[in-house]
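Our platform keeps sequence and structure together, in a single record for each protein. Such a record has a labelled line for the sequence and another for the backbone structure tokens. This encoding replaces a full spatial description with a residue-level series of whole-number codes. Below, we set out a record of this kind in full and without editing:
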Amino acid sequence: MEFNIAFIGFGVVGQGLAEILLEQEQELKEKYDFSFKVVAISDAVKGSWYRRSGLDLKKLLELVEKQGDLKGFADGIEGWDSIKTIKETNANLILELAWTDLKTGEPAITHVKTALENKKHVVMTNKGPIALAVRELLDLAKKNGVEMRYEGTVLSGTPALNLGLYNLAGSGITQAKGIVNGTTNYILTEMEKGLSYEDALKQAQELGYAEADPTADVEGYDALGKIVILANTVMGANLSKDEPPCEGITNITAEDIAKAKEEGFRWKLIAGAELKEDGSVEAYVRPEKIPLDHPLANIMGPTNALTYTTKYVDEVTIVGPGAGKLPTGFAVLTDMLDINRIVKE
């Protein structure tokens, strides 16, 4: 089977994946029997193109790098919106890489539903649909005999979901907790070095770790979306994104950090989910003082980490980047290869 791929969104992640596909195309074919062509790209800002026999991905990347959009590509049909692209192209694998909206999940939820209803596989990095409607979407995928994957929604290319779902299957996971937002971890690291919260935040913005409006990061909402996804996916919960308590780092002072260090602790913004005796799962996001001998205490800067507590193998911690062009593009690729393996079985 050859996959005909449509990109819905061609921002940083989409371009990162495109670079990986160009570089690895031959190896993907030889090592994993993964054959593909990119037949469509639909981006609300950069433009849209469709060519049934495949687009020149190298030329498209060069255009975006040179001028910031896809205008002037002139090799195919131009201008189809996302829904028309999903429905009417010959794509059988839709990559939902558009912007994230954790309040409504749109337009991504509509994109995913449309793809699944049209019996097309879906891979996404968009947290919105998974945080808000994962059960409905998984049921819809099953009903239509297609696959849906979303590893990149939590910790980017660091395989947090796959570790819990596959590598630790049967291990008796009772808890997951970790540092799932690199921006806040960077700020807390810099505050420990002596910067004020305001100066650390400004530095994070200058380096591109924090947005101009950092609310989603510093108030914990980004971490909340991720832990809800993880709890629902790996631990069988059915949490809504507004259900768990959520507290960010804005009230952490330099004095708090200094005092914790004296006591042998370090402040981290922790997202956690815990399996209770009655089978329910409780989740939260809050600053916690972590003992310096715990693996999470030594995760500094914009790095992410997650610890699974299990019945049979105690604690397992995974560490890696939680964002970035190539790591997130790689997360999409791992999901594509997983779907490829399943459809060939």
